[in-house]
Specification:
The chain is α/β, with parallel strands linked by helices. It folds into 2 domains: about 1-295, Acetylglutamate kinase-like (Carbamate kinase, 3-Layer(aba) Sandwich), CATH 3.40.1160.10; about 300-385, 3-Layer(aba) Sandwich (Aminopeptidase). It is built from 12 helices and 20 strands. Strand 18 (about 335-345) and strand 19 form a beta hairpin.
Length: about 400
């Protein structure tokens, strides 16, 4: 499991693959329980060769070399295109209307997809196991009001996740097996329902209380010129880009769904959209796709005493200990401090002083275990917003 992974193992893999090291994830991965790391979601387009081969290759490194086992949730997509009832089923607000006829045609294909992915992993000596559909416990979605026409339509056998039975997933992970999950759930009566695969993966992350949702697709989020948008630091930034037309269509929809999930999870969690070729970069490095995160909650204080001088001293000394530096004993006797910033999790912050009427950042500090998580840049943006 991740807690047994050594820094040397991770650095060896990073060096072999030419990946830059992310200190934050290097430290965090080693401190997490096996089920807390994250979940990977692969679209139906990617669970056939050659994309499936890339995913399997990534799992060989993660599972066999690093001991990181990540649940894999798979979609259907193109495998359903040939089903007689699929093309005529239609969508309402992006939700596939699933009649009993369509569901009966989807189920055997979903099972074939599940078996195919498990067999591909097993064939490469990555132990995997198919999870029962009952992991996702659902209720009928019911009626959806079409945003375009205003008409109501029952979407049929589409399920909303009520809860996730995490027991079989966690048991598989502790046995060193990759849990592979389909996008099918069941209600209290055993009736099966169709679930959006990305929604299912997000629910699994939530119920496992994991840190990452990595969504694999053909590409990350692109702007209207085709360039990769590497990061969204807040939902406000996303909405501004949508309003300006920088991103639109499916890209905007994916990003909005990601933030709906992040708002339920809070700071520290991320959604990362990338391709199979860049999966390892997203997990153990600084990434190559699009990362979406919730902004940190940064509290401000007019005086160190309002936060606690002793506690602040310890926080700063911990941040600089690896460099052999400590705060000078009389630092807080200086009356030049005009504002202190510390994040709500107490992992880092900054001190702003004033010199001849001009504010400047005197100290910027982050605990070593949290360097590279984006906090420092957000604090600097906050200071710039406050003082220009």
């Amino acid at each position: 499991m991740a807690k047994n992974m050594t820094v040397e193992q991770l650095k060896e893999v990073q060096a072999k693959l030419g990946l830059p090291i992310s200190p934050y994830w290097t430290n965090l991965l080693r401190g997490l329980e096996v089920h807390e790391v994250g979940v990977i979601k692969a679209s139906g387009k990617l669970i056939v060769p050659p994309s499936l081969d890339l995913i399997v290759s990534d799992y060989e490194v993660l599972d066999n070399q690093l001991g990181i086992a990540l649940p894999l949730v798979i979609g259907g997509g193109p495998q359903y295109d040939a089903l007689p009832a699929y093309s005529s089923s239609g969508k309402v607000n992006g939700i596939r209307v699933t009649s009993s006829e369509l569901l009966s045609q989807i189920l055997p294909v979903a099972q074939q997809n599940l078996d195919s992915v498990v067999n591909a992993l097993d064939s490469s000596k990555v132990s995997a196991v198919a999870m029962p559909y009952s992991v996702f416990r659902v209720k009928p979605h019911g009626v959806e009001v079409d945003s375009a026409s205003g008409k109501e339509q029952d979407v049929g056998f589409v399920g909303d996740v009520v809860y996730v039975d995490t027991a079989p997933v966690i048991a598989a992970l502790y046995q060193g097996k990759i849990p592979v999950l389909s996008h099918i759930g069941v209600d209290d009566n055993g009736q099966q329902y169709n679930i959006n695969a990305t929604t299912a993966a997000a629910e699994l992350v939530k119920w496992l209380q994991a840190y990452k949702l990595i969504v694999l697709g053909n590409c990350p989020i692109l702007d209207n010129t085709g360039q990769v948008i590497s990061e969204f630091k807040s939902e406000a930034a996303l909405n501004q880009m949508i309003k300006q037309g920088v991103i639109n269509g499916g890209m905007a929809l994916n990003a909005r769904e990601a933030y709906a999930f992040l708002k339920a999870m809070g700071p520290g969690r991320t959604v990362q959209l990338t391709t199979p070729a860049n999966l390892l970069k997203e997990l153990v490095s600084d990434g190559a796709g699009t990362i979406l995160r919730m902004p940190f909650i940064i509290q401000s204080y007019q005086s160190p005493e309002h936060f606690g001088t002793a506690r602040l001293t310890d926080l700063i000394n911990d941040a600089f200990a690896s460099r052999g530096k400590r705060l000078s004993p009389g630092y807080f006797l200086d009356n030049g401090i005009i504002k202190l910033y510390v994040d709500a999790e107490k992992t880092g912050g900054a001190i702003v002083k004033q010199l001849e009427g001009v504010p400047y950042m005197c100290k910027l500090f982050t605990h070593p275990d949290f360097r590279g998580n984006g906090l420092a840049s957000q604090i600097m943006e906050r200071i710039n917003a406050d003082y220009g």
